[in-house]
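example protein:
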Amino acid sequence: MNAHTIFTNAVILPVSAEAPRWFRGWLAVDSEGKIAGLGEGEAPDSLPDDPIHIDLNGSILAPGFISAHSHIYTGGMRGVAHSDPLYAWVTQNSAMLAGADPETMYWLSRAGGVDHLAAGITSVYNFTQSRVICAFDYETSTLKAVKVNAPEFLTRQVDGVVDSGIRSVTSLRLDDEQLPEEEAFGAFDHVMKHLSENIDTTHPELNLGGSVYGAVQWSSSKRTAERERVLMDRYGITNQAHFVETAEQIEVQQSKFDWYDEAGVLGEGFAFGHFVHPTERMVDRVVETGTSMVWQAMSNGRLGSGIADVITLLDRDVTVGMGVDDQSCTDLTDPFENMRTGLFTQRAVHSDAAIMSVDKVLHLHTLGSAASIGVADKVGSLEVGKFADFVVVDPREPATGPIWDPIATYVLACGQRNLKHVYVGGSEVWSRTHPADSSDFAGEDGFTIEDVNRRADDAMIASAQSGGFEPAFQY
C-alpha cells in the first residue's frame, strides 16, 4: 500500500455495500489523492513511505457530500422573492443578473464553490448561468432573452468553480431558442473546449466532465430535445433537465415529456431534476429506460413546489440523488438540513417512520448522488481507488450525547456546527479551526475565503443595482 497520509482513530462511515455500516479504524491516502486503504482497528505498523499520521481522536469520518444539482453562483441572492413560487422567483433572479459581466460570474461562482466546500460538499453538479439572461414568459411558458453575453460569461464561471477547489460537473444550457442555432452550438463547443484544453491542463482532477443543462421544460418545440441529444452524442456526456418541478402550468410541463422520450434521450446518462409532479406514465418510462432522478428537498419546500414521491421511485429501483439547488432558494448550502428535510417530509407524508432509513438518506446525498450524475466510479463513498474526499465531524463538539448508532447520530443530530474539517483528494480545504481570512485556505492566487466573499458580494450588488435592486444593508 502506497500511503502518503493515514487518518487514524476514526469512526468511519464508508457508505459502501462492500463494507460494514460503520467501524472504528483508519483510512490511508496516496500521493495522488486517492484512497489507498482503509480498515478496522489500528493502521498497519510498517509502511514503505513513512506516511504522515493524523489522529482524529474518535471523530466521524464520512464521504464528502455530493450535490447532484446546484446553481453555484446564486449565493448573493439569498432571501430574495422569499414568498414567491418558482417562476416569479426565477424572474427576479434573472433581473438581478442583468448587469452581470464575466468577472461578476467568476466571483459569484468561486464564492459558491467555497460555500459548498465549507458545508462539507466536495463534488457538485453545477448548472452554470446561461450567457443568455432570460425572463419566463407566462403566456408561452418559454424563456425570452433579456440580454446576451459573450461566451466568456460561461468560461469564467468554470474558472471560478475550479479556483474554489471543488470537484464539479459543468452543466451548460444550449439556448437554441434564444440564439441562432449555429451560435448556440458554437458557445457550447467553446466551453467544452475550455474544459478539455484549459481545466484538464491545470486541474484535471477537479474536472468531472461536462453535461447538458436540459431546457425542454421552457422550450416551444421538440427540436430542443433533439439538439440536446446531438450534444450528448457528440461529447459522450450526460444531461440533467429541470422537469415538472412546480405545480404552475403543470399540464404544459407534462405535455413536453414526450419530446425527450421521442428524441431517445432518456436512459442511464439522463436525469430529471426535481420531478415533483410526474404522471404515472412518466414514472413508468423513467423506470423502463433507467433514467435517474435528483431530489431537492429544501428547495421544493422553500418554493412551495411540492413533495416528490421519492419512495415510489426508490421502490421501483430508480437511481436517486440529492442536491442543495440554489443558495438563493434553499438559502443554506447545508446537506445535513437537506437530508433531514427530505427524510422527515417523506416520513410525514406516508405517516411511517420506517419508510426511509437514516442509512438510505445518507446514501442518497453521497453515493446515490454520484451515481445519478455518472461519477460513482470516482466519488461518493470511501473505497480504495476513489478520490479521498471526506469530512470529519465531531459529535462531541458541541455534544450530541451518547452514541447509540453512529449513522443515526450523524444524520439526525449532527450538522454544520459539528463539521470540523473538509478534505478533497486528501488535502484539507476547509477547517473550523482556521478563520475565514487565514492564508491556509487562500487560493493559488492568494485570495482568502474572506477576500472571495467580499468580491462576490460587491459584484452581486453592482449587478442588482443596475436592475433597480438595492440591498437593505451590507455588512
